[in-house]
Amino acid sequence: MKKTIVITGASDGIGAQAARQLKAKGHQVVLVGRSKAKTESLAKELDSPFHLADYTDLSDVRRLADELMAYDRIDVLANNAGGIMGDRVVTKDGFEKTFQVNHLAPFLLTHALLDKLIDSSAVVIQTSSIAANIFGLGFDVADLNNERQYQSQKAYGHGKLANILFTRELDRRFRDQGIKAVAFHPGVVRSSFASDTNHFLHYAYHTPLKYLVTISPAQSARRLVALVDGEPGKDWILGEVYDKSMPMKVKFKDDGSVARALWEQSEKMVSGSQVQ
Ligand SMILES: NC(=O)c1ccc[n+]([C@@H]2O[C@H](COP(=O)([O-])OP(=O)(O)OC[C@H]3O[C@@H](n4cnc5c(N)ncnc54)[C@H](OP(=O)(O)O)[C@@H]3O)[C@@H](O)[C@H]2O)c1
User: Fold this and answer.
1) Can you give the residue ranges of every domain in the chain?
2) Which of 97, 118, 136, 170 shows the smallest number of beta carbons within 10 Å?
């Protein structure tokens, strides 16, 4: 069946390759990117519609949601845009940039599209990361803006753990209304990841190292495509996070209360209320 699939972070890396693969399967692919030149170029290549938004500005995300509401249906929303940032920066919205780009902006986008997603019984996919396990263990809803002892990889790990907690809570709240939420780790991928920064991970991913196995963006994209192709509840478990075809063991322990608190704080943040 031909699906309408919205992919954010579609202008480069994993998102661009997933867009190519899904288009080749006959789906309608809706591209969302930050860079106009890169997004437009892929849109031409695939003959696909495109939209632009910079997630460091939540008003851009609201406009993006308004534009996407014009589609008749959204069968899949792949919240894939994200990455590691450099030094600590506070956005014009007043939030730490890594947290905003990786969690708050996709939270807002999903929230703003909820009616459409429910009407479409949509699959909502987050591109998370194993970084949630490596760097994200100190996650604290009382410090979503990463004010305490900022380190870019720690903020990134927190953002990627937030993707997992968001997936669980989205599933808990909206499974009954037809939403199918899932997250995945895309592998260690030789994409443009961290290229905006001088973070060591960018160099590590592009240097042949004995101890680090990397994969191409096209190989990684197959993991996203497998979730789109799979039957929710049969081929993958709702609310789960996957590493390849297996559920990923999440080291951060949560009985559900942290995921709930994150959701509530995020709602306040995107509605402009003061929190913390
Ligand atoms: N590469 C890895 O090893 C790895 C591992 C685990 C998880 N991930 C996750 O995989 C996802 C895709 O990353 P990638 O590896 O494909 O990296 P990439 O090649 O750098 O692509 C990142 C995408 O996110 C978009 N993006 C970045 N900052 C943005 C912002 N402020 N507003 C809106 N869009 C923004 C980029 O847009 P423009 O290009 O238009 O600027 C690009 O389309 C990310 O969520 C990343 O955290 C990657």
Assistant:
1) 4-187+218-270
2) 118
